[in-house]
Amino acid sequence: MKAEYKSKVFRPLVTLAPRSLAAVLSNSTPSGGELTTWSRQFFVDAPFVRNFVVAGAEVFATVQKEYKAHYPDPVPPKIVTSLSRMYRTFLLELCQNLKATGDLTSADLYSNLDFVWNFCEIMFLSSHPDFPVLPYLVDWIHLNFDLTSEILPKVVAEGSELEEETTLELWNLIYSHVFHGTTREAARLLSYLGGESASSTTQRHVALMEELLSKRPEFRPEDAASSLTEFEALFTAWQEECVNRLENGAFSGSPNFTLVCKCEKLHPQRVAYQFQCIFDAESNANGFDLRGPRDLPVTVGGKYGLFVMSHINSNILCGDDEAFASAVARGLITWYEYMVLLLNYKYPTIRPAQLKAYAVRTLQQLDLVDKLEARDAILLHAMDLDVVSVLREITAVWDNPWVALHLSDLIFACGRSSISTSAQKQRRGDDASFDFACVVPLRNDFLLEYGTTLMEHETLWQMGLCYLDALPDGKGRPVIRTCFQHRNPFSEQEAQKLVQIAERYGFGDEIKGICRQICLSKLKRGGSSQAQNALLWAIKAGDEALTTRIVDKILFEGDAQIDVALLDALLANVLDASLAFLHEFSIFRRAVSEGRGRDGVVSLCSMIKRGVIPKRLAIKILSKNESIFDDGSNFEGDDVTTLMEYVQRTLVTQRGDDYNSEEERQVTDLNRKLIKIRAYRIMCEFRRKATGAEEEEEDSNTEFVYGEADDY
């Protein structure tokens, strides 16, 4: 597990972020919260990365809900830990996707991140300052170094007749479980060695060892009935039993264990050498060099298996220092595992704040103090409960604001539940202290950085809103406003979403700017449909001058056909006296579009009598809606007279203003239709008087009457 400092999977994205963040991360003095450019490399077009960002935002929103629900109390550690594990689930999924794409460097990078995050989760979120940290460390080591899923299927497949190589791998697995503190799992695995094919002595030794491993006491912090004092008493009694069984020769009777008795004063280096002989370096999943002879036959595993088990495991259970030195075997296990090994069998009750001292002791014993990687430095900072240093190193290694933000937010949500009082620290002799006050400004800076970065993204910008909204005291609102001002919608759908969100925040000026921008882009494209679409955006913008301009363009330069829904919108947003005629015009257009000819005639005559129709629109309005003149039954009373007089005036105006011949022809055709309608009305009236049958008018055929009118 080697952390790399750069990932090739990301492309740069310029965004807004506070200078105070850069100051904190460089250990310099903050210069305020001004906005400046900040380059980050963490967005790509790959769908799985987008899913990773979206999934993280969903968990973040859940954290904020939990924080508000529990305020002013902190969110319980159990809830925060479960949310942290959700983040880690997405990290591991990202690793798998990166591996699938062949980017093994980035996959290893984020696999390391999960390893570090898990440890920070223990130190800052899960563990309680007054209880042992060991149970959490056991789970951490087991999760990251367990080889059961790789080895056990082979053991099960071979049954009771295990091959020498498989036996060797099984011993390896048993040792690792003992080292990690998962002794019950080690006891379960021992049963594969004590089957029917094994000798009675081996079966007896395996049964005794299974009993010891299964009886090892475990402290569970989540168990309210657990007592630390009771656990210490049980652990001491169990370890005394291990010592007594070893001293009483419980494992004698076998040549292998007889060898143990003969070599009870064997130097630790000799034990280490024998231990090396059993394992082949290539079978070790961590890839560590055992530096031992590799030409021994595999049968040494069977010959020395119980020997090493008796000397290493039995003495390890007793907490013997020589056994610990043998377990190391000059690089057999990592320093993380060795530290947990020490805690498991010598110091099982240390508190989180005391962990750093034992880690340093481990590093010194293994001569690794000057050989630490960046990942190791982060773990040591976490043991010091130094949040600032942890976040600084994480940001330097992973160069991704996603990591530092979500981790600091979880620590913030957990609040002061993991902080000890000065008296408690002094009483326990803690070597580390947690300064919660520094978490708040760091979280705010990361929120600002990550939120504005998302707001600059083409498709993920909506995710940034929940992060900026999480800034305390409404500090995110002006930042969101600034982001809206810099955002150029690339589609009408995005513009609609921007307007919807801006309305929610009450950003009136930003709404006007977005709508005006889309409106002008529609006008540039040209065409009747684009002009009407532009009119809709102008209405949304509340721009009086622009709306009037577009209406004039449609009415005077276009076909004077405005969509009914747009007319309704105009009526609700009349911005200028020159648009007052649109009220009557909208009523007229709706009646015509719905086939209500009579209502259309009434509305048209009303506009003529009130004189609201602009002269330049007269011919267009009459010619584009001439369908109402096709049915004489649409006209009553003086409607025909009103229209004929208006058409005559329009015809005179048209000739005086030198209109083109096409427009004159349209007026002449309208006049001819009105003459037919008038003749139709006269004949209907004549027949009514002659027959006294009023319903005859309704049954008359219009075309027939028009034919008669022509004859007339």
Please mark out the parts with pLDDT under 50 across 5 or more consecutive residues, or reply none.
1-42, 254-312, 416-430, 700-712
Could you give the order of strands across the largest sheet? 1-2
Shape: elongated
Report the mean per-residue pLDDT as an integer.
72
Determine the number of helices (DSSP H or I, runs of at least 4 residues). Answer: 35
Biggest sheet character: 2 strands, antiparallel
Q: How are the elements arranged and paired?
A:
Layout: E1 11-18, H1 19-25, E2 35-43, H2 47-70, H3 77-100, H4 104-126, H5 134-145, H6 148-158, H7 164-180, H8 183-190, H9 200-215, H10 228-247, H11 255-262, H12 268-278, H13 300-317, H14 321-328, H15 335-345, H16 355-365, H17 374-383, H18 387-398, H19 401-414, H20 422-428, H21 439-455, H22 463-469, H23 476-486, H24 492-505, H25 508-525, H26 528-541, H27 544-557, H28 564-572, H29 582-593, H30 597-610, H31 618-624, H32 639-656, H33 661-691, H34 696-699, H35 702-711
Antiparallel strand pairs: 1-2
Helix pairs in contact: 2-3, 2-19, 2-22, 3-4, 3-19, 4-5, 4-17, 4-19, 5-15, 6-7, 7-8, 7-13, 8-9, 11-13, 12-13, 12-14, 13-14, 15-16, 17-18, 18-19, 19-21, 21-22, 22-23, 24-25, 25-26, 26-27, 28-29, 29-30, 30-32, 32-33, 33-35
